[in-house]
Amino acid sequence: METYLPTPLDNLHALMYAADRIKEEKCNDPTIQAKYGNALEWKTNNVNRFYPCPTGTCDSGHCHITSKDICLSQGQLPWDSTGKTLKQCPTGPHGPITGPNCAYKPYLEWNTRSPTGICQMGNFPLRRWCEFPYSRRKKGGSWEKGVTDVPPFIYDPSKSICNATGAYCDWMDVSFHPEYDYANNVFPTCYLRGFQKFMEKWVLGKTIFRNLKKFKPPAPAPHPGSTESWQPETKEEYPDVIRLCDEKYMKTMKNIGPDFAGKGVNLYAITWKDDAFRLDPTLKEGSAGFISSEMSGVYPQLMSTRRNNNRKGKFYTITIKHCRDKNLKRIYLTSFSSSWILNNISTLLKKLNK
Prior knowledge:
Strands 13-18-17 form a 3-stranded antiparallel β-sheet. It has a 3-stranded antiparallel β-sheet with strand order 14-15-16. A two-stranded antiparallel ribbon has the order 1-2. The chain is 30% helix and 21% strand. The chain has 10 helices and 18 strands. It folds into 3 domains: 1-65; 67-88 and 99-191, no CATH class; 241-353, no CATH class.
């Protein structure tokens, strides 16, 4: 009778089988189950079994934590509140010697992509990169414009995804789309509105247009008792704007910037009736501006009725102090450059139509 000698591969398979049996016994051990609130469950997964064996006689699998709270209690972020990486805690005769400046647990996440949720090892390098911009360069803390000096993203540990934020999109001077549907690959993201794309590509250029958006109003006066010196700007530096916006004085108006200054406040290309120039001498023959029905609904605090002899109309008044709101800032800046904007758009359209 021939004697069969196990091969090295047979020995490896036997070792893997033994490891599975030990893991399963520990997972179902009453003492260990009690320690983790009976939140451990052995789940068979023969798809990933690496050794041959008849199904049902030596199933492979893993021990899963079935409770989100238990899962997260067994994990630890490997960095401190500033994003500085923690060193591994030293090990003593009775286990890890824990402390505030070292990590002794793995980083775990409760991922909800599975219908029942699953406890898994988390992607801590991605989360650190996401939440601490300064870590995005090899030498932590090295400054780089547009990379390390930006607002942080927000990390979703339930999906292991790094998402854009409204603060970051504001910093980039683009719009923010907050809705998400992970199942259909829809994520919070920054984007350019159609009007901004047009202005950046054809009229002002990206740098000029975003610099207009980044226009910063003067700092407010310090609080009473502050030792900080402050002088209010003069009217000559930042003049107030009082502009006619009454539709009854308009010949035509064409929407060229939907929601330009907030939801429901559009930018229009306007041609004026003769009476409009008598009521508001600052108007130009053709200009870009706003209409009173929309302004009254969103910014009633800016609106007033003004008279000139026997004529009266609706005006808006906007000052440099209003520019702390990004939409009012657009109205303020556009009020100074409305004719120039419209002229450039008109010239461009003529060229495109030739």
